[in-house]
Amino acid sequence: MRTLEKIKKANDIRNLRPEEYEDLAGQIREFLIEHVSRTGGHLASNLGVVELTMALHLFLDFPKDKLIWDVGHQCYVHKILTGRADGFDMLRKYGGMSGFPKRRESNTDLFDSGHSSNSISEACGLIRARELNGGKEKIVAVIGDGALTGGLAYEGLNNAGQLKSNLILVLNDNKMSISENVGGMASYLGKIRTSTQYEGLKDNVTNTLEKIPLMGERLVRQIRRSKASLKQLMIPGMFFEEMNITYVGPIDGHNIQQMYEAFLAAARKNGTVLVHVITKKGKGYDCAEHDPGQFHGVDAFDVETGKRLNEKRGDTYTDIFAAAMNELAVKYRNLVAITAAMPDGTGLSEFKTKYPRRFFDVGIAEEHAVSFAAGLAAGGFHPIFAVYSTFLQRAYDQILHDVCLNNFPVTFAIDRAGIVGNDGETHQGIFDISYLTHIPGLVVMAPKNATELKEMLEFCITHPSPTAIRYPRGAASQTLIEFQTPIKCGECEWIAKAGKILLLAVGSMVETANKVRGLLEMEGITAALVNVRFLSPLDETMIAAALSYKIVVTLEENVARGGFGEEIAGKLLGREFAGKFLSVALPNQFIEHGSQEELKRAYGLDADSIIARLREFGMPGI
Fold first, then answer.
1. Which residue among 166, 198, 215, 534 has its CA within the 20 to 30 Å range from the CA of 606?
2. What's the predicted TM-score (pTM) here?
């Protein structure tokens, strides 16, 4: 029997002999490469934590003991070791196993997670709960060096330093978040990785002094009594020590025995202990080791070559944004770009190369990115913060208070707005219309196609107040180019006016609405179509015109609550609209993982489902 086949449930690894650990690690890596190459997923990060996860599972007794994964995309090995290997055939597929920790999957998954920097705060809460309950379970939080750039991590560390009972923080240091880490903490950890000066100095001084007749031993004792002063100057990890957190490391994150012994020692101490382990992202697979950023999150790929199996069909909205940024930077010298650790994912890598002085990567720190943008705007520049919709949620107060209250010309380029797909609940960008459109002074737009995205971006750069553009994941629509009327603030675009049914579509749903219109025409029913363009401010002439239609349908990739449809419904009701109203939007719930097409079908956002809903309306001729 292969070693991996002996793992059927949590804690089975503790029944293995130490000489089997290396085989298990190798088999886990083979398993991950084989399965992720078929399903896609987060590969490099999981290859890097194989031995670390094994050491944690040898140390902890599940489910009594508690393990928290910061972000959570590196939990694949944990899932294997808790008996979920069979689920990897359906990893990240609709109805299958999630690529992130999921409470409903296992009692060893403590939190549903997908954003970073929250694990330390959650662990502090668990410690206080343990103290109140009089429990004795071990509590461990694993946080990456990239996540330490997030402000929430420092809020957690500040609290963790006050704890009197044991908490173990494992710092998984692979020098990466998604792209290479940046900033002061990255530099600090880099120094720790290479620092041998304190231990070497301590040994040399001790050996030399002990040789001095009569006084030597007394001097050594005196130095030991004042070693805090020496530590202050030389010891690695003093940043954590000053926060009353015991620092241990750095330790080889691929040496199971060393890590296991470090965890045992850490568990004997009252208070918080940080165990610093050094891992290699992508370890064991040459393609991922060579390009860990590319293999952070991958589609299906060929194992031999590392090349993706499904060729990209046309430029994505991210590609269109990237090209537009490079072009506009020549024309507008005040244009600067900001990313939160995602130059590749948001399309800013080429901008970074071409305009290094006008590019800023602030690390995984979305709140800081927004306030930083406000500072740049106050200094006379026009910052464009490119960010995924799901991650912009973290910076709501900074958007409202630091940018919009001050009316600074900052642009939020909101990528992956709407249904994202296989990453699931934590990554769906389905709330941004709801949390942005009620902010005074913030202009919120959504393009119907690639051309419109470019034109909206230039509009933003010349607009004197805060702006936001939301655009979806995937191939950029190239349809309806012939209706490309100039962008004017607060004005929609009428694609067709005739008919008794009016379709008001937002961004990605314009193409879907046009398909609905075509299907209706095949049944002899004419429908009008509006490309909404501006979610805030709304086009009041559009709303006035809508009153003359028998049926008004709104279409958006956002939850219904607080969305575009709810806003239009309120406007129509206030004007005593006599017709029927239908809102096509997502339900007010978290949307699970699956392909974009599957999820749109499941939640009624595809053309056929919309036609079916119109029929249910009981309208004549449908």
1. 534
2. 0.87
Q: Is 367 among the residues known to form the active site?
A: no
DSSP state of 469: E
Task: Indicate which residue of 394, 416, 448, 517 is catalytic.
Answer: 394
| DSSP conformation letters of 96-146 | S--SS--TTT-TT------SSS-HHHHHHHHHHHHHHHT----EEEEEETT
β-bridge mates for residue 275, sequence order: 170, 248
Of 102, 130, 281, 533, the active-site residue reads 281
Does 281 qualify as catalytic in the annotation? Answer: yes
pLDDT in tens, 226-267: 444 444 444 567 888 888 999 998 899 999 999 999 999 999
Q: Which residue shows structure tokens 């920097």?
A: 117
Pairing of strands 580-586, 551-559: parallel
Of 51, 130, 175, 366, the catalytic one is 366
CB atoms within 10 A of CB 208: 12
Q: Which amino acid is at 432?
A: D
Q: Is residue 51 annotated as part of the catalytic site, yes or no?
A: no
Q: What is the C-alpha separation between 496 and 492, in angstroms, rounded?
A: 12
**Three-class DSSP category at 64:** coil
For 541, residues 6+ apart whose C-beta sits below 8 A from its C-beta are 491
